[in-house]
Amino acid sequence: MNARDQLIDRLRRRDPRGALERALYVDPQIYQVELEEIWYKEWLFAGHDCELKSPGSFLTVQVGEYPVVVLRDRDGGLRAFHNSCRHRGSRICTTEHGSAPRLVCPYHQWTYALDGRLIAARDMDGGFDKTRYSLKSVHCASVGGYVWICLAPVAPDFEPLRRQLEPYFLPHHLHRTKVAFECTIVEEANWKLVWENNRECYHCAGNHPELCRTFPEEPVITGVSGGFANPRIAAKWARWESIGLESQYRLSADGQCRTVRYPLIEGATCYTMDGRAAVRRPLSDAVTEPDVGTLLLFHFPTTWNHVMADHATTFRLLPLSPTRTQLTTKWLVHEDAVEGVDYDLKRLTEVWMATNDEDRRVCQENQIGVNSPAYEPGPYSDVHEAGCRQFLDWYGTRLRQRLEAGAP
After folding, report:
1. Distance (Å, rounded) from C-alpha 179 to C-alpha 292?
2. What is the mean pLDDT of residues 165-183?
3. Cα dihedral sign, 240-244-246-248
4. Which of 63, 72, 169, 364 could form a disulfide with 188 if both were Cys (CB 3.0 to 4.6 A apart)?
5. Residue 75 has what DSSP assignment?
6. What is the spatial distance between Cα 316 and Cα 292, in angstroms, rounded to a whole number?
7. 3-state helix, strand, coil in the chain (%, to 5)
8. CA angle 304, 221, 243 (to 5 degrees)
9. Domain 160-371 falls in which CATH fold?
């Protein structure tokens, strides 16, 4: 039985009431199948429109074995390409962010226009046809200030995601923001352990003193249902929707994407140590009330997000190995907000900087324990860990569908 058939068998036998068996968190062959059937076929969050404001501005991202560059072309559109020269394969754009009027390979200076066309290749013979060596395209789309890519030859339909995100995110004008701060850490844990940690707050009281000043440890926040049963949440939803802010819980039909607006702890409007706004200038002229809760988005497998009236904090997750995961966090503020005048950088970032480091520690310890041959998955808490179960249901279903579709 090959690795794919073994994985199908493991997924069929999976107990949905708890975590996964050890192999699915440590095995290199399973990790490779996940790259091929999930990471190389889903829409992935790459970055923000505001990072690509002018023609020639670019960002790079590494998805498994694939380096990708995303850029703004001369017509103002967004494009993505495999970041690999068509000559001998060297990576072309070598920094995380940059700007250039054209893309020049640093190895032999083959030069590409912003639409991917090869426009110069020094000292090639007279029969060389530049039109055959354009950069290879990657699917690229944008919605609500978020830029997405898909590596598959044929991408899934993007429109359902667009329809879900637009009503929630357009009022916040994230395309008119800037990145006030960016931080990337490596968590020594499988990417699914990082997601499971995110999808529950069972661990929050014991590990996140900074976050718990403002984030309510209510199962409904990380869960997979409702909010109407909570009178405070229902009242907030009614209030926010009366001023034109989509708020109620929405989970996509396949369980991949959730959007909802939830209140923070009573009296808090922001993830700061005192609960007050971190930025004097609101993100958007369309959202002027200081208390609009936190707009939450998760989209498996790459991103979770928090958007408030004054700023947004966005998270991008990428796998590095079976037991290593990269997490990039960005803090977005209004494009005209001035550091030292409209916001203090330490105050803006300290809660999530501390929380990320605490999660890095707990995920690493989780992986060390799972690495043990003595590890056996235990049951989830029905009260606190329904979000973990929902994530693994999506993961198991999507992976089985893809594997069984390709099985003989």
Report:
1. 21
2. 98
3. positive
4. 364
5. T
6. 23
7. 30, 25, 45
8. 85
9. Naphthalene 1,2-dioxygenase Alpha Subunit; Chain A, domain 1 (3.90.380)
